Amino acid sequence: TVLKEAVTDGDTVNLEEYTASSYISKCTDDVTGSKTIITHPNQKPWVTTEVHMLLRTRDFRAGDKEALRKAKAKLSRAIREAKHAHAQRIHGHFKDTAQNSVAVEKSILPQALCLTAADVRRTLRGVNPRKAAGPDNIPGRVLRECADQLANVLTDISLSCTVVPTCFKTTTIVPVPKKPMVSCLNDYRPVALTSIIMKCFERLVMRHIKTQRPPSLDPLQFAYPSNRSMDDAISTTLHLHSHVWTKRAPM
């Protein structure tokens, strides 16, 4: 492929040159365009595109009372439906988290990490296209849509070089305001943007590490098991606390 030829010089493959030259970004810029979207700190999470359109429609109906009344009715109905859909998404998120104890796994011998192009392709197809790109400026949509073209290239280059490129390990720190009015540096939350390709490699290694977990792992371990998060740890702690106080309460 063209991507593989760009980094191959005879029998050697220069992954650093391949990534640092932003060849993927160049190909992306040649066939796609960019769009700037403005977001506000106080924007509600349940506001959808339909609600935005109805808000603009209501503003343009200010001179016509009958049209304004109908526009307000449609807007109120759309807001109720959007809030309900957002609430259902939140309920579904907490419903899917695992609250039961971890099943005891059989002890197996550690296996060597073996990656295939199919594993890389499956991981690239699972990339969230809405995630922000890292310092390499390669968007997630490109990696997901071009997974078939990039899987073999990234797999062959990585296995032949046996080294992680420096550009994959760099991180861009973006300060995000915690509230609408910023008065000091403490009002910013630092967000680290890393390369999406590096995140895909980390997921591949993470799957291998999870298969090597010992059966003696504490069932209250929430840091690394799948479908578990800090919310589960907080819920479990509150449940145990309330259970103890209920038993100690006088009858």
What does this structure look like?
This protein has helices spanning 2-7, 15-20, 23-31, 49-60, 65-96, 117-125, 140-145, 147-161, 166-169, 196-211, 230-248; strands at residues 8-9, 12-13, 171-177, 188-194. The longest helix is centred in the N-terminal third of the chain and has 32 residues, at 65-96. Among the domains are: 49-87; 113-214, no CATH class. Helix content is 53%, strand content 7%. The chain is extended. A two-stranded antiparallel sheet has the order 1-2. The protein is built from eleven helices and four strands. The model has no long low-confidence stretch (mean pLDDT 77). With 251 residues, it is mainly alpha-helical. Helix 6 crosses helix 8. Strand 1 (8-9) and strand 2 form a beta hairpin.
Question: What is this structure's SSE topology?
Answer:
Layout: H1 2-7, E1 8-9, E2 12-13, H2 15-20, H3 23-31, H4 49-60, H5 65-96, H6 117-125, H7 140-145, H8 147-161, H9 166-169, E3 171-177, E4 188-194, H10 196-211, H11 230-248
Antiparallel strand pairs: 1-2, 3-4
Which characteristics define this entry?
two-stranded antiparallel sheet; single chain; Reverse transcriptase domain-containing protein; mainly alpha; 11 helices; 251 residues
